[in-house]
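Input:
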Amino acid sequence: MSDQAILDPRIAGVLLALFSVLWVFLGWWWGRNATGLEDYMLAGRKVGLALGTATAMATWVTSNTTMVAPQLAYQLGVWGMLGYSLGSVGLLLFAPMAKRIRELMPGGFTSGDFIRLRYGTFAWRVFLLVSLTYSAGWLVSLGTAGGLLIQALSGIPYLVGMTVILTICVLYTLLGGLRAVIGTDFVQTIVIITGAVIVGYMTLGAVDLESVHARLSETRPRLLDMLMPASLMFLFNNLLFGVGEIFHSNVWWSRAFAFGKGVGFKAYLLAGLLWIPIPIAAGFIALAAPAIGLGVPRADMVGPLVAAEVLGAAGAVLLFIVVFSAIASSLDSLLAATSDLVVEDVYRRHLRPSASQGELRKAASGTIVVLGVLTWVVCVLDVTTLAKLLHFTGALVASTIWPIAAGLYWRRTNRLSAALAMLLGSIGGLAAYFAIGFYVAALVGAAISMFVVLLLTWLRPGRFDWRKLQESEG
Amino acid sequence: MGRLMGLMHRAPWPAGRTWWFSGRFVIALVVLAHGSRAAARQGALDPLDAGLPPPALTSSLAGASDPLSTDGSFVLSWSLGDEAASGAFASDVSFQIEEAAGDGEPLLIDAGPHLTSALSGRDDGQYRYRVRTISTSGSTGPWSRPIHLRVEHHSLSLALSLLALGAVVFLATASLVLLGHRLASRDESSRQLPSVE
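Output:
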């Protein structure tokens, strides 16, 4: 790619410095009173509706929303754009589950706690493998996306941009734990929504819809084809990928534990509804690329390139801030939630069962730093390999949908069905990934997992005592 | 700033569905300090005078003998010989791709100053691509050797089958959660620990 950028590196550097100072200060400010383990990991379990909605929404607006939503519109057309917005279904369906989780496990810490208590050790370890693989892929993809986006937008070298964004997120998550993450998410949500509205409004005013349609019809007819095979397959695949990500990941479970009583349901519902238009707006501008004659070197850069092309210098500044906020809001959440999972499910449950609250608090801080350093090392060594891992994990995370949902609502679902559903769903989904394409991996993984859970629940019904889940308290 | 300076219009040459950019053709994305950069550009030699070789063109598709795309998307990449030379010249030239679908008339596509181009939305068929350089003064370099590739979308029956499977899995999952929520809420209202059969 050429060395041409859409924003002067000096201005980008000033923006990067300003927002870095702001996030770290806010993180320190909001987290300064978080002394105990529950305060640090779960923000005292009393997060309110406004902060709850904002953190759920901001975390779900990731670099994927700003890069992959336009990419999928560019590659898969109208269904790609609409299909990506179905990612909101995961948030909407998690709303009732958040309420259920809070009721069943008022003292729970992680999604791993639920799987361990509900399905036993073997299924728990399979789950940890799935979840930590997914978290590693997401962390690396966010780090690399941050570096690449900053480089593409401003010309600031990849290594510098990636290092800055990782360091900043590690620093304020370390200082304030989940309080800092949720507080900064609130500000970042305001920035993202405001930026998206302005970018969408300005793009609609700058691009002639008729010429967009005419140019697409002439040169890329399949993007307007409602029966394009790959996009039809993608439609439910993306929905199930998103559902799998949200149902299993400790990013969302830790919030369900952290939200005050009665908040989780409303917060996730509102966040899902607010999220729907964002990928549609981001995807639409990608379809304008052929009409404005813009050369697109990489499909995942089409959104930022078109926005900057159409909106000019002011748009480039706005875009830079929105992208920086979107990546930071997801990276901090993932650092905090993965740290919780490692500390609770690996350190405490496997290595030091007798660890005191103080030791666990120190372990949580240390884990955040270690995760940050490991992510940085991988991002430096190889910008592509592990980032691609995230695409593979569609099969893995979708295979957890049924074990988790059935485990929360059905007494009869047994241990064997959960473990087998995750194993066979993952294997089947990965096979479909290589045999057909990325747009079917989650779908096949979820379908196999569902079949296994239904079959084994019917053949070998259990009778789980819900009170066992409350052993996680304390 | 940040806008394409050429206006796209129908060209009399070559005939048919061909697009090109008129006038001075400067693909420059937003550069706030554009004054100094623009001045530097104006003083630069036309890179085509330096005798640039034709670009070496490749595609992202697997299959050396019969590259195939099953979703109508692929990436074309090219280089100008030495990697370093490519990077140096790429800031002073743009690239133009010629696409020929089957026996149809060729179409020119602006690729900007980049060394790759992501294409999508192609219909089933055989395609031929080649690429060339265009300098800021509008002069063009030699065409690359053409590459051929094939687009053949997945069958509609496979797509509709997977769509139906996805719909079933989604509806079953949503039913599980929503019905479970309803029953659990009913239990909660009767002040029992939430439980659903």
